Amino acid sequence: MNINISELDAKLKSNKLKVGVLGATGMVGQRFLSLLAGHPWYEVSVVAASSRSEGKTYEEAVGNRWKMPVPVPHSIKNLKVMNVNKIEEVAGMADFVFSAVDMTKDEIRDIEEAYARTETPVVSNNSAHRWTKDVPMVIPEVNPEHFEVIKLQKKRLGTNKGFIAVKPNCSVQSYVPVLAAWKEFEPYEVVVTTYQAISGAGKTFEEWPEMIENIIPYIGGEEEKSEKEPLRIFGKVEKEGIVPAKLPVISCQCVRVPVLNGHTAAVFVKLRKKADKKLLIKKLAEYKGAAQELKLPSAPNEFIKYMEDNDRPQVKLDVDFEKGMGVTVGRLREDAVYDWKFIGLSHNTLRGAAGGALLCAELLTAQGYIY
C-alpha cells in the first residue's frame, strides 16, 4: 500500500479524527487520555464508563483515582461521562474508539462487536478478542500484515467501516521484538521469566501496600498468554483468519515484583541457525517496521536498543526509553544449556498497553482502515 504520510499528516492536523475512550476512568483509560492530549491526529470527543459515572464530569467521575504522573488533561476534565452501554449514543460521537472496559470476557466480546456493528472501528487493549481468528492482534513493527484479516471480519460482521483490532499482552513486549529481529536465525525453543510491575494489575503502591518489599510468584492467566500469544503474532494470514505459528515453543513463568512501571524478562533461546553475538546485536539495532518507516506520531525512532553495561537495562534508568515506546535489551551472552540468554525491558502501560494500542490506531489510520 502506497501511503503519502506527509499529506495524511497535514490533512489530519487540520481536521482531527474524533475518538472515544471506553472504560475511561480506569488506569488504562487514563493512560489513553493522557497520551491523546495534544495528539496531532486525534481529538477526544467522548469518554464512557459504567452507569455509576454517567452524567458526571470526567474530573468528578475519576475523583482521587487519577493515577497518571501528569494532571487530568484540561480538554477532558469537563467532558460529561457517557454510559458505555448506550452504544449507539456513544458511537455517534466518535470516528473510532479505544476499548479499555473492565468487564468479563464474554461481556467485552459482546460490547466490542456491538460498537463495531455501528460502523465504529474499535482498537482494544483487552484480551477478549485476541484469539478471534479474524481479529488482528498486532505489534506494528512485527506483524502489520495481520490487519489484512479485517476484510474477513467485516464480512462476518456485515460492516463497511466497523471492525475490531487488538494489541497483545503487555508481558510479551520485552522479548517478542527480539525474537522477531532474530527471525532469520529461526528461534525454536524459548524459556522466559517475566518480572511484572504492579501497574499491570491496575494498582499503585498506595492501593497495594502488600507489594512493598514483596514478590508474588503467580499472576493469573499471564503464563498462558506469554506462551501462546507470540505464536499468534508470528502466525500467517490464511483464508479463515490468522493461523498461529508452531514455533518457537515457549515456556514461561510470570512473577509480580515491587516495581510501579516496567516489565523485565529473563530469556533463554535456542536458534536453528548459528550467529555470533556481534551479528545478533547488529540485528537488534537495525530492526524497525512500518511504524518507523512511516514516522507515525507515537512510534519510537529507535525500536530496540542494546545496552552494553552489565547492569542494564534497569527499570529506573531505562523504562522510559523513547517515551516508553522502545524496548531495551542487555546481557546477551552464550548459555551452557540454551544458545543465548538476554534481559529485555518494556514499559507495560505505554508500549504494553495504551501506547501500543495508540500506535496500532495510527497505523490503521495511515493504511486507510480508520477514517
Account of the 3D structure:
By secondary structure, the chain is an alpha/beta fold. Strand 5 (122-124), helix 7 and strand 6 form a beta-alpha-beta unit. It has 2 domains: 5-169 and 354-366, NAD(P)-binding Rossmann-like Domain (Rossmann fold, 3-Layer(aba) Sandwich), CATH 3.40.50; 171-347, 2-Layer Sandwich (Dihydrodipicolinate Reductase, domain 2). The longest helix is centred in the last third of the chain and has 17 residues, at 350-366. The strands form 3 sheets. The protein has a 6-stranded parallel beta sheet with strand order 3-2-1-4-5-6, sandwiched between helices. It has a 6-stranded mixed beta sheet with strand order 10-7-11-14-13-12. Strands 8-9 form a two-stranded antiparallel sheet. The protein is built from 13 helices and 14 strands. Helices cover 29% and strands 21% of the residues.
